[in-house]
Amino acid sequence: MTTAGDTFTLPARVLHWLMALLIVAMLFIGVGMVASVSERHEWLLAIHKPLGIAILLLAIVRLAVRLRHPPPPLPADLPALQKLAALTSHWLLYALMLAMPLIGWAMLSAGGYPVMLGSSLRLPPIFPVSPVAFAVLRHLHGWFAMLLFLTFLAHMAAALYHGLIRRDGVLSSMLRGRRKTAPASIGYSGEPAENAHAADAGSNGPDAAERIE
Ligand code: HEM
């Protein structure tokens, strides 16, 4: 049986990959939308708004899952700076997953535009009508989208570094939720943990599943 806390839970993994897909799609839809002057603009916007609100709801669920089930500890031998970078980028991603949809919604509210989810469901405004606020929020939405994209790229690079170079089990714990047992490791907060990220898929040694208890 797998010990609690040494692997990502199934809901955490499903939410991670589903949201990764949705957010990347949203970034491309957003850029395609603002670059388009044809009727495609309206079509993309009609997808962008409900998908953005879906991301907001999923981010809230994900935050609850994250707070209830802390992630597996990082490898004990990971340099402190890399641990700090991991922690910072993960919380930045959470902040942006929540902020981006809220800013988009507030922006349209400030502009006096209805936020329609489909043809009949209209969301209430969350910001008073103000042309100045609309302009500020419009810029903020673009800048935060860029920050989200850069953080996503850094996150992906780090995942590949763990999976292909360090082979320390961090990537496979999000892919399969399985981890080989290993000597002591350190949690996010620095506390020792029973199990560590031992090896990623493709690394040497017997099948990881055999060593999971
Ligand atoms: C995670 C969620 C979201 C992401 C990643 C995202 C991403 C983007 C991106 C990349 C752009 C283009 C920015 C630029 O190049 O200036 C954009 C524009 C826009 N977004 Fe979002 N967005 C999200 C949520 C929302 C939500 C929830 C709404 C509204 C309810 C919204 C409304 C808009 C609007 C109105 C524009 C400008 C369209 C235009 O000027 O033609 N976004 N978004």
Based on DSSP secondary structure assignment, what is the total number of beta strands? 4
Helix count, per DSSP? Answer: 6
* Low-pLDDT ranges: 181-199, 201-213
- Main sheet specs: 2 strands, antiparallel
Tally of separate domains:
1
Radius of gyration: 20 Å
The overall pLDDT average reads 85
Strand content: under 5%
Which architecture per CATH? Up-down Bundle
- CATH class equals Mainly Alpha
Order of helices and strands: HHHEEHHEEH
Which molecules are bound in this entry? protoporphyrin IX containing FE
DSSP helix fraction? 55-70%
| Shape field | elongated
Q: Name the structural class.
A: mainly alpha
How widely separated are the two ends? 4 Å
Task: Please give the structural blueprint.
Layout: H1 10-34, H2 40-68, H3 80-110, E1 115-117, E2 121-123, H4 131-166, H5 170-175, E3 185-186, E4 192-193, H6 208-211
Helix pairs in contact: 1-2, 2-3, 3-4
Bound molecules: protoporphyrin IX containing FE.
